Task: structure prediction
Amino acid sequence: MLLPRPASVARTGDDGFLVGESTHICAPAEVLPTAQHLQATLRPATGLPLPIGEATDPTSSIALSVDADLPAASYRLVSGAQGVSITGGDPAGVFYGCQSLLQLLPAAVFRQAPVKDVRWSIPAVVVEDVPRFAWRGALLDVARHFIPKHDVLRFVDLMAMHKLNILHLHLTDDQGWRLEIRRYPKLVSTGAWRSESQLGAAPDSPSDGRPHGGFYTQDDMREIVGYAAARFVTVVPEVDVPGHSKAAIAAYPELGVTGRQVEVSTHWGVEHDVLNTEDSTVQFYLDVFDEIMELFPGPFIGVGGDECPKDQWQADPRTQQLMRERGLDTEAELESWFISRIGTHVRALGRRLYGWDELLDGPVPKDTLIGAWRGAARAVEAARKGFDVVSCPVDRVYLDFRQSESPDEPVPVAIPLTLERAYAFEPVPAGLTTDEAAHIIGGQANIWTEHMDSARVVHYFAFPRLCAIAEVLWSTGERDYDDFSDRLREHLRRLDAVGVEYRREGGPLPWQLRPGVRGRPVAFAEWEAFIRDLVSGKLY
Result:
């Protein structure tokens, strides 16, 4: 009953293995951190000591090892009466094997205090497994509603539990700037706070009258990045430019086109205040990205690049003068110029740009990673142009969307994205050649938090749909929704033990309702027309 579904599971005729007082964990130095993590996870509920050593005696042991001849991130788990062995193609594979081991135990193993009258028995099985995609991600938007550090760490644990390995942190937007930048302190002293928040999704929704804010210090972020790395999760930062930048402009008005003082946005949607394209503004952001790259050691640095209105640039004489001086004919070319300046700097420091599929509308370096969000056609276009792609189509993986047609769904947005629809997500679009398909390096779920003001609300929107997407990104072979549903029922017991307030099959529980808070649901035909306008550039 493993989730995500492994490549193969075979039961043997053995009696299985009983974890008990004599059980120990064997691990060489290269996987000692994973052994310690396994020990720390098993101890609270079992109350067992589970000492760690390098002994090779398999009797009554959980033995971890690496075999470099196995594929990266793969593992082989063998359990029997004498013990358990987990062999990974690398340390990540060993870690994933340990996640499967935990799922082979009773769900109570995920509780944080001793559980009585439970046999900690592992069935006799052989599990062989390897992930389908290298990029198995989740975007967590901490800009619209700040998610405290503790809850981000908990979300990392939930990702690791589902063998997800990329946490895309959306750190800045019109509604807030969430990361300390020491050279520019007003980004958080001013940009991290707004006076109130829009309550609901309708255009005429009222505001709640309650100040909102928060940010991560650089020490906080080092902790998050290190905590995630220990669980084989890479944190990818996103600082959105040149649109979605009103919080930064509120902190430093000279970054804006008009130069006027603005406030951090209190409403959802796309703001028309965008960055100017002066060399001084470019340098400001190069300084920001220098500090970003010190904090995030991974290969990818996110620059957003989406939903940038051009009307301020079109009306501004200074912007038009800069375009003429730079030999640029259109505002779209100006946006590409801005992104390319940052891209050149990032690449010079050995990193790669990661941005939304609007980047395809202009010249960007060929090693740019494209987040294809506006439908499968954008993923096809990017792959055929030779770009690596993270597939995240809005109608399949945007987990802020309503989960059914029921009027009880809290703040219902857009079309229904049911659990079954999420499970039907296919990251590799049809029609690509083998070489083109190789550019689809994976996919991710995107959790936008306009209507999620706490971690428990995030859990309601994310789970169990994120379970489905995790399986899509990990598992090979044909999909079977009925089989997934059967395994999910057992898996929900694990989420209960962890304390995740997921959406029940029957709909929201009473405290998950948002009576009186209006959403903005649309029908499928209306949604398809909106996407056509979005892709054509009519909206921005």
